[in-house]
Amino acid sequence: GLPAGPVNPSSRSVPVLRLSSDGAAIETALSRQQLAAELTCPLRDLRMADPTFPGQFPSVLARRGSIIFSVGEVKAVILSNEVLLFPTKPDVLSIVPAVQEKIRLGIRAVPFEQTVMECCLKHVCKDLLESARNVEPRLRTVLDSFKTSKNSLIKSLHRLLPLKNELDELKETLVTVCKCMNEVLMNDEDMALMYLTDNECKSTARDLHQHQEIEMLFENYLLQVELLASDVIELQNEVRNTEEIVEIELDVLRNNILRFELLLSISGFTVALGALVTGVFGMNLLSGWEEKPQTFWQVTGGIYGCIMLSIAGTVVLCRRLSLL
Amino acid sequence: GLPAGPVNPSSRSVPVLRLSSDGAAIETALSRQQLAAELTCPLRDLRMADPTFPGQFPSVLARRGSIIFSVGEVKAVILSNEVLLFPTKPDVLSIVPAVQEKIRLGIRAVPFEQTVMECCLKHVCKDLLESARNVEPRLRTVLDSFKTSKNSLIKSLHRLLPLKNELDELKETLVTVCKCMNEVLMNDEDMALMYLTDNECKSTARDLHQHQEIEMLFENYLLQVELLASDVIELQNEVRNTEEIVEIELDVLRNNILRFELLLSISGFTVALGALVTGVFGMNLLSGWEEKPQTFWQVTGGIYGCIMLSIAGTVVLCRRLSLL
Amino acid sequence: GLPAGPVNPSSRSVPVLRLSSDGAAIETALSRQQLAAELTCPLRDLRMADPTFPGQFPSVLARRGSIIFSVGEVKAVILSNEVLLFPTKPDVLSIVPAVQEKIRLGIRAVPFEQTVMECCLKHVCKDLLESARNVEPRLRTVLDSFKTSKNSLIKSLHRLLPLKNELDELKETLVTVCKCMNEVLMNDEDMALMYLTDNECKSTARDLHQHQEIEMLFENYLLQVELLASDVIELQNEVRNTEEIVEIELDVLRNNILRFELLLSISGFTVALGALVTGVFGMNLLSGWEEKPQTFWQVTGGIYGCIMLSIAGTVVLCRRLSLL
Amino acid sequence: GLPAGPVNPSSRSVPVLRLSSDGAAIETALSRQQLAAELTCPLRDLRMADPTFPGQFPSVLARRGSIIFSVGEVKAVILSNEVLLFPTKPDVLSIVPAVQEKIRLGIRAVPFEQTVMECCLKHVCKDLLESARNVEPRLRTVLDSFKTSKNSLIKSLHRLLPLKNELDELKETLVTVCKCMNEVLMNDEDMALMYLTDNECKSTARDLHQHQEIEMLFENYLLQVELLASDVIELQNEVRNTEEIVEIELDVLRNNILRFELLLSISGFTVALGALVTGVFGMNLLSGWEEKPQTFWQVTGGIYGCIMLSIAGTVVLCRRLSLL
Amino acid sequence: GLPAGPVNPSSRSVPVLRLSSDGAAIETALSRQQLAAELTCPLRDLRMADPTFPGQFPSVLARRGSIIFSVGEVKAVILSNEVLLFPTKPDVLSIVPAVQEKIRLGIRAVPFEQTVMECCLKHVCKDLLESARNVEPRLRTVLDSFKTSKNSLIKSLHRLLPLKNELDELKETLVTVCKCMNEVLMNDEDMALMYLTDNECKSTARDLHQHQEIEMLFENYLLQVELLASDVIELQNEVRNTEEIVEIELDVLRNNILRFELLLSISGFTVALGALVTGVFGMNLLSGWEEKPQTFWQVTGGIYGCIMLSIAGTVVLCRRLSLL
Prior knowledge:
The structure is a homopentamer. Chain A is built from nine helices and six strands; from the N terminus they run ββααββββααααααα. By secondary structure, the first copy, chain A, is α+β, with helices and mostly antiparallel strands. A six-stranded antiparallel beta sheet of chain A has the order 2-1-6-5-4-3, sandwiched between helices. In chain A, helix 4 (112-147) packs parallel to helix 8, helix 5 (153-186) packs antiparallel against helix 8 (212-282) and helix 8 runs antiparallel to helix 9 (295-320). Chain A is rod-shaped, with a radius of gyration of 37 Å. The interface between A and B is large, with 61 and 63 residues.
């Protein structure tokens, strides 16, 4: 392999949980240099599994004699007789009793590395499923609030934004996990390398096409992650559909408000015209009609009649222009 | 294969319908452990066909001596002389008489497992077609309602949202079924494994490229599902197009309303100016014109003239600014 | 092949036009059972070419001794010495004289099945080209109407919707035809099977890579269909671009209208303030100023002055808030 | 090859520029029949390079003894000792001196057909680069006008529409040219066929993998076209981003206008209420307060006080409803 | 290889930093002709690494005896015993001490060309990471400003536009770098060619599949770039989500403003009606009620009562029409 200089000068040690194939687990701490020397594998590869490096892409690397498993929170270096688990989060350690239980029950026909990988993959799936189950009910509540009450729309929108971001992140995670599993499945060479126990025993190179157990293992968990991804995409579609419909609804509502407002404006305008007439007759100027007894009623009647007529006329006009 | 520990501790039995290759059907119940032992196939694979696990991705898995068929509602384990059908829904059982009819008619040149797979695929296609036929007329009604009446727009939108979600789900289902069939078609090894009857008789391994019947079978139903998917995409395009046009229509309508409102505002403003003049002359203050007999008519005429002139002027200005 | 039970119990016969390799054409009618027996090919495959089945995906299937050609309206079963053409539409029959002309002219070095396939492909391309030529001028008219007159926008939108749907359908058709041709081109085995005349004469199996003529034939027509598809996509882009620009234009226009309306509102408000002052002095209450001769002019001047000042002030304020 | 009937009955001749490998160029005219006979290549293939056929998809076809090169404006049939160039546009002829210069300088180790192809590819790249350089500055001007002045927005939009269409067309062209080059690069057989000079000399078939010079040639120009395509996509992204931001800006501006309008409406309403009070006291009816000397000031003060109070109250209310 | 004429007539020399495998570095200047002669590699290939050509697509070309590395700012020609580094930017030179340090430390088991490539790839990753880290905090500030204050929305939008363009560019760069690395990883032949030291020593051709070290090297840095690309896509999604939510929020706010405005319009209209009545009684015409003492209070009460009633009625109507 490639020897590597001190990529990261600090040779600080990281906590590691070593679980041997007989079920014994020891908590210890190792520096990366020690690890690389022990595994005869370049430091660069170890960085994949190093929990102190933030933001790692999911990857399952098959190296001669070891599998570097780093998907989501689960970061481990799997050997034929031991697994080095990096405790990135407390609940990752739940893999240990699962493996121990399998070892206890197991007829030992399954090689140790496959037992460990299955437990790791199961833990990853469980984690992803929990994330999805965490988002979904909150999202449903918000989407339902869009349909029912129109008053708290702004509040619902404020709650929707972080949920949309979470969904995008979750989908991205699921897609990269799928991609990483697919890469394993498409690489015959890597899958053959993953039979650590077998490869150790036999001297001759393994045939590249003898990897059915590993293939079935990854295929199976890939299907589960794809199902989850498809559920998340469905949720995103629902969000998108709801948003689209809400936008058109708001537009329709606005047009309805504006139409009613137009109706008021028309009426208001004719009333203003009438008020102008009354204003004219209210001027302290001589019209010569001041003393005629019937004029008051004629003018008043005329004003009200004209208002009614012009409102009717304008409404008819607007109907014809399809504004109302 | 991989032995598996008690993934799901409860060893509750699920109802199964066993249909043997001579047409005899027995309803029974099996636990998953029994099934796995009988089929010598890992529990993990059986989970695919287990109706008690919710939300399964469509998959057709070829294993040594058995085919695990799980697409949509149809979940079955096909052997060379028997099929185990899980009755997820009552209408899935309609596969049984279809197979029995084929057996009765058949010249028995077609192996049992192919007969069963064809009936299963046909049932899946029928199911998907029904879902599509169920959505389409309702969607057409809603889309037509957009074109005709503008009054019930909000109601139409409320009915459109669940339909859009249904369409997205249906498309997702169709796409995953296509993907699952394509995966079978691209895997020579799996298709060769599916000749259960042949593989049982012959001792030598089957040539990987002798799978024309299975290939034609899947190819054919794949074409049907793809056609359906393309129809659903066309429906989605129509929805999208209608929404886009409706949105622009609402915008145009709004601008027309606002223009008319602007016309009213202009007229209203000039009327208000006239009213101000009448108000001025209505004040109980001495203007010195109180007793001049012609002033009333001059002022009134002036007011009306100015109103007409300023309305005309402002409309001309707005035309030049292309607001009207 | 797979024997098939009565998929569709009705054994009604469909009209067929048989054109033999010497140019003789006979109109006849065949039931599907007869056809399947004659061609020794499963009913399932025939369904592809059956015009009574609605909505078929384009497909060119190579079977032993026959080619099942079903693209768009052209549905035919091609044999080494005969072609069975299903007259789905009258203009499909124009393939017959084209083939006859080719036979008359031909130096007969080209096998019959290739002559027929070329005529079929040419007809398909002509059909697709006509559909595209039918949509384009109507679409250009509508798009131009968007640019010129703003009055008939709603009408243009009503005419745009069906055109957009037509474009989407046309594109989908073109894409599926391309996909179908590509599938032929990527399948060496199928192309080798399509040399019906050659395969009949020779006893030994054809080499899988000897298919240059068929490859060039499909390659050529594929280029034409792809060109058409790219033209349709360009049209769709133009529609999209026009819509986007029209939407922003409507928004800009609306803001301009609202700004002018704001100007009117400001002026209207100050006039209303003035009217309030005149109203105050019009009250039949004693202000004590009733008899002072200059007050009328002072108050009137004050009102007009304040109106002018406050209009100017508010406009300056709005400019600073960048509302005007 | 496939003999072809008279696809296009008119056997009109097209102008051709023949440039032989010793640098001599002759302008002549050939009918397509003559050309096909000379090249022993089907008419169908020649159509690709025929400038009288409008709208051709870019394609580089390798035939036995000739290369049919048709990308953009450059349409040519390349032989081992001659190239037939179709002068679709005057500037295409600039390829001739470029080839002649190369021949003059050349150590003749490079076969003639590669010299010609390099000149053709270079011309195509130059053409595409010029198209891109033509659009970019005009687009930048329009995009900048969006950022600076808000008054000429409608004009900018009118200028943006044709530019967007041009960009889409350019991108489509670039993508199809890339696709065409990629198809050459992925087809070992075609690249081997393109060694016209070598293939003529040697009797044995060329090894399919000996095509490094042709591969490097196309790889190189492919990189240039991809770079251009990526630049065009970046421009489109900028347009999209600007449009999105402008749309939200217009929305924000509209809300600001409406808020100010709301402020005016509130004030206007309270003034109208005050005017109503003055109107009431202006009625020619007896209130009994006509002669009380202080009432005038009390009512006037009351009106102004109420106006101030209710404006303040409504503004506070709107703030609480977050409307202002 | 292909000899090339003077593509670019000016044979000006470019500054080059030569670093030999023993760690000695010399700054010098070379013309492209000299370089091509020295490397026996076509000028066309050198253009990839030529810093005077603007806008290069990232590419790593394996040639016989040399690797042309041109990704981002890092442009170099790597030989088995020397590297020619083009100092496009000052910080590119930081590769030199990194390589020297590696040489000093190295057990020399790693060939020189791999050491150099690792340093180059590390520098590229560092550069890209810095670009991403540069954009992110500024973007977060802008996105947060959207959530908190609504007043500076226009300013935030002005700051968002260049950031969106930067993100698009960065994503495009990351995608093209990934593509370039993937192309190396998918080309066994190129990776085998990159063992410059090995290939020089051995006379026999290297087996195409012996390239694990190079593969692991590129795989590793590809993962890092992909992770960065996925982070950038996440940022873009956040921007998109925020924009969508802000747009709907603005719509909701606008509707709320319009509703309140509608309420004001309704009230205003009824007040105008009341004012009309007062106007009527304010006319200097005889109604005959002038002297009746109670009329004033009856009319005033009637006006206020009607106003209240009609406001209530219209609000109820609007509620029923779901406008309020």
